[in-house]
Amino acid sequence: MRRTDDTTAKHRAILEAAARLICKQGYEGTSIQEIADACGLTKAGLYHHIESKEQLLVEIMNYGMDVFEERVLSEVEHIPDPVERLKACMARNIKLVTRGWSKEVTIILHEHDTLTGKSQAHINGRKKRYVRFLESSFSEAVERQLIRPVDPTVAAFAFLGMVLWIYKWFKPGGKRTDDEVAAGMVDLLFTGLQRVPPS
């Protein structure tokens, strides 16, 4: 179905409403009827806009990945210094999780095992691109002797572990701003990666 501006806006509103519910209640804990109610639609009316509940989840995750690639990867890929590239990437990724797009990002993180078959493979392929970007950047930093020798894969997943767990504990308006958290995490990881000159 070709979408007009009105149908695109309606579809976007459905994704937003579904994302809010799934983020709060989990995928399995959210029914199609609840999503329809949140959208002011009947269940039949909702199915006019979506193929299935799983397809709706795929669209939410794809949108989250689109936002991530636009606001994080595309903004840092061009940075020539791999350490500065990684630092900027970490800061931007943290703020993506803590600011306005957290619903879709949280769903990508929390519901990663929910999808099946081709849908799961598609989303996993998009996530693996990020892992490869991190591995490549860490490998380049090691080769250029900008950080101490580390396994790029271990470093990449350490990076991701720090960043992607934030949605579980960070509270907007709490004791620390997300700028402070980003600066602290960048300092913690990259101070640990500094080369130690031989004595």
Short description:
This protein is mostly helical and 199 residues long. The chain is 72% helix and 0% strand. It starts with a helix and ends in a 7-residue tail after the last helix.
Structural descriptors:
199 residues, mainly alpha, Arc Repressor Mutant, subunit A, Tetracycline Repressor, domain 2, 10 helices
Helix content range: over 70%
- Largest sheet entry: none
Number of helices: 10
CATH architecture of the largest domain: Orthogonal Bundle
Q: Report the sheet-strand fraction.
A: under 5%
Question: Could you outline the blueprint of secondary structure elements for this entry?
Answer:
Elements: H1 5-25, H2 32-39, H3 43-47, H4 53-76, H5 82-98, H6 102-110, H7 117-143, H8 152-164, H9 166-169, H10 178-192
Helix pairs in contact: 1-2, 1-4, 1-6, 4-5, 4-6, 4-7, 5-7, 5-10, 7-8
Could you characterize the architecture of this molecule?
The protein is an all-alpha fold. The chain folds into two domains: 50 residues, Homeodomain-like (Arc Repressor Mutant, subunit A, Orthogonal Bundle); 140 residues, Tetracycline Repressor, domain 2 (Orthogonal Bundle), CATH 1.10.357.10. The protein is built from ten helices and no strands. Helix 4 crosses helix 6 and helix 5 packs antiparallel against helix 7. The longest helix is centred in the middle third of the chain and has 27 residues.
